[in-house]
Amino acid sequence: MEQRTPDQLVEWAYDQFLEQAADMLAPEQIVDITLEFEQRGAVEATLPNADWSRELGVPVDLERWAEVWIGLLDHQDEFEVIYASYLLPRQQGDDEVHVRWFRHEQA
């Protein structure tokens, strides 16, 4: 079976993020995303963090899964804020998605 490319994974995660963000994040976060995403926003595919295995109940298979982070970068192009982290299957036809939302309360 064919594998999704990193670009396909990023696009899939971002589409889901756009559909779900208003329901899952604080209103202030939505304002931040709206105002700052064009200049500082990032969607990046990475190797899955091992702590996903607690949620899955089995070790994370790096061949099967990819993790995608969505957030804002700082001035050094590193993630300053992560709003959501998606665990997505690499295989085409596998649609099992896991997501973690991070609500950052404003001080």
From TrEMBL:
Name of a matching Pfam family: DUF440
SUPFAM superfamilies in the cross-refs: Putative dsDNA mimic
Organism superkingdom: Bacteria
Gene3D superfamilies per the UniProt record, alphabetical: dsDNA mimic, putative
NCBIfam families: PRK05094.1
Name this polypeptide is given: DsDNA-mimic protein
